[in-house]
Amino acid sequence: MIGVMAANNVDIAGTVRERAARELRNRILTGALPPGVRLDLDAITEEFATSRTPVREALLELSYEGLVRVAPRSGVTVIGISPDDVLDSFTILGVLTGQAAAWAAERLGAEEVARLRELAEQRCAAAGLTLRIPAPRLCTDNGAMIASFAAHLLAAGAPPSPLDAATDPGLPVVQGQVA
């Protein structure tokens, strides 16, 4: 059984229960608390300088999330996340991202779109990339993007692509383009 060690950058916003749940969740998801580890309620209580009640509530919250198992007389054990959990998270993220993009497309004005471009440029620059956004006439459907890609390949001397050719979304992004 181990106690939870204090982290250097603990987020202190929220109630004690919220802070404890957030910090423990972060440690579980980052692997600092690996699956199978038994958590020491007294050590956690001491670390967060609080009573047992908010720590118990935080652990109960994590059990509802499936990150720990709370068993009477056995204590609290980290379950962690499985590869399937990660895949499920990406599926959910994809659905939510699509919904957010649809919502934004219907509601954002020119100023908001300009701000989004600024933020995208900053994120790309931080990653060492150059953001280039294609002209709107090229963003109408995937077919136009594939045709443009094929035209660039032909212009560069590549042989014509077969009819079933497409871009590979699994390839790393090294450059974006604004036309």
From TrEMBL:
Pfam families: GntR
TM region(s), chain numbering: none
Record-annotated HTH gntR-type domain positions: 14-81
Record keywords, A-Z: Acyltransferase, DNA-binding, Transcription, Transcription regulation, Transferase
A molecular-function term among this protein's GO annotations: DNA-binding transcription factor activity
Protein name: tRNA N6-adenosine threonylcarbamoyltransferase
The UniProt record lists the keyword Transferase: yes
Gene name of the record: tsaD
UniProt keyword Cytoplasm, yes or no: no
EC number: 2.3.1.234
Organism name: Mycobacterium talmoniae
